[in-house]
Input
Amino acid sequence: MREVRLPVSGAIVNVASTPGPADAPVFVLVHGIGMSHRYLERLHRELAGSGTVHSVDLPGFGRSPKPEDGVTIEQYADYLGELLPTLSDGPVVLVGHSMGAQFVTETAVRHPALVSHLVLIGGVTDPARASVLRQALDLARDTLKEPATGTFLVLGDYLRCGPRWYLATLRPMLAYRTDLRLREVSAPTLVVRGQDDPVSRHEWGVHLAAEAPLGRLLELPGRHLVQFSGAAATAAGIREHAGEPARGGATVDETVAP
Output
């Protein structure tokens, strides 16, 4: 895995990349609030055998310096809109976790020609739970039962992000209506969640898959960090999704064993 820093509209994006065959899919992985590409490394490695994989640190997160202008979902989508053509000659399989699901959804709406397939893992934010208190409680419940190695990665990235930037990005995360924006997405969309995820819950996952014109829900054993604890099963679902032809109507896979 090789890391480079690439410029986008006066900001910098750190990108960790593993090359694959020229005729294979290109996967781009996008982290959630406060995080970096580090907690996506297991999923990155699992996907690397199927194509080129890029994992990004968006401006203000991980090893990417904080941008001077704005903190909006739309701005991050436009950063990705600039970045993706430098990573691939054609449309990519765009994968986002947690708040990253918002970044990639908005990217697919604003820059549809750049996205062949969309994947939302542990997508947020359910408007019925869009308060700081509820999100904090759900995250605390999740953290208590996540693998310790995953929790250490999360805490380390939160410390690097810092409370001021975390809070600045929390406000747009709570306000963004992922479900409504998914109605405008033309790419086939896979919604992935851990069966025991208290942050992105079952009813919300069903709703997200139904809102996407070409949506499907995949539920796997695990919690909010299902891409970390269940990297192999998550990657298998993404590979299958990327190889499927577009089809109409949402479907739901209630339970899928790893």
Summary: The chain has one domain: 2-253.
